[in-house]
Amino acid sequence: MTTARNRRRTAAATVGLLVTLGLTACSTGQQTTKAGGGDVATVSGKISITYLQKQGDQQYFIGEAAGAKAKAAQLGVDLKVVNLGNDANQTISDVQSAIAQKSQGLIIVVPDPAVGPQVVQTAKDAKVALLTSDDQVCATGPAPASCDKSALVPRIGFSGDQMGAQVGKRAADEYKKAGWSAADTRTISAWKQDVTVCGDRVKAAKSSFAEGAGAAVQNIDVATDNTPTGAQDKVAATITANPNVKHWVIWGCNDENVQGGITALANAGVSADNVIGVGLGAYLACKDWGSSQPTGMKAALFINGSDVGALAVQTMVDKLKNGKDFPQEAFAPTSMVDASNWQASGLQCS
Q: Which terms are listed as keywords in the entry (predicted)?
């Protein structure tokens, strides 16, 4: 792989849909694609790719897998999708299995960033191309947030900063519309705190809300496992610890955190009129909007996993077939939806 210095890279991936690419350059001036699996030869025959996903039964990742499969079929690529669940230990075994089955490229969403260095080394030793989607992976340590950019594996996904800013802005708009007092209102930020992209989203949401709310509302950070039940349990404890709060605004890393928080608030007797939830994903939010029951889920950012899956496969094929360098990051578009417009947005609610 090329290691030329002091060049900024641009890349475009044609995926048959509107996709916005966001590229970042390494702080050292070096290309960072060496973290994508070592020296990888181009493939002249049939290309075989394995897409390994955490939480593969989550709606977002189901959509991502569907988009990847559709793009693979279009390109004539063999694609295998593997559900890693939440098992970090199983991740390494499944990566090794994919390599043993002659996959030339691996696309992965790791259950735990701590396995990142081993995944990178395994791919590098096998001279297999490695690309991440959604979550970042560091080649040299377990914490992408503190990783040198030259060691981050190229990633396809969404911009955490942009998504969080949109969520925070909508939450601020809803807060001002509600006319609540800051004194008896709290915001809840709920996320799995060792996932870098989650931290990016929440940080940006906090900043955007603070800028747009017109009042200083106290925030409560809630550490979750990014599941609805995990968020529900942790938010329930937060509610109990703050009995004098009348109004709640909640956002998080994904729809699961917001939905779990809204359920906890409802179970605690907080009416939907006193809750502003802004989801991230919209795949759970739409279920609330499709029912006749009042809900605290006021809006959600629609992120289409299918776009990411398709773009990841296209990017991997470009690398394996044509030797095209991975972009350091490529971003798919997002849009804000609510009960009034989600059906017209193209969101598939299952």
A: Signal
Residue 155 has pLDDT above 60, yes or no: yes
- For 67-103, write each residue's pLDDT tens digit: 999 999 999 999 999 999 988 889 999 999 999 999 9
Q: pLDDT for 108-130, tens place per residue?
A: 999 999 999 999 999 999 999 99
Is 68:313 a contact under the CB 8 Å cutoff? Answer: yes
Q: Which one, of 176, 138, 142, 171, lies nearest residue 155 by Cα? A: 138
User: How many Å apart are CA 221 and CA 232, to the nearest integer?
Assistant: 14
**Residue keyed to tokens 């297999």:** 128
pLDDT band of 38, cuts 50, 70, 90 = low
CA distance 186 to 268: 15
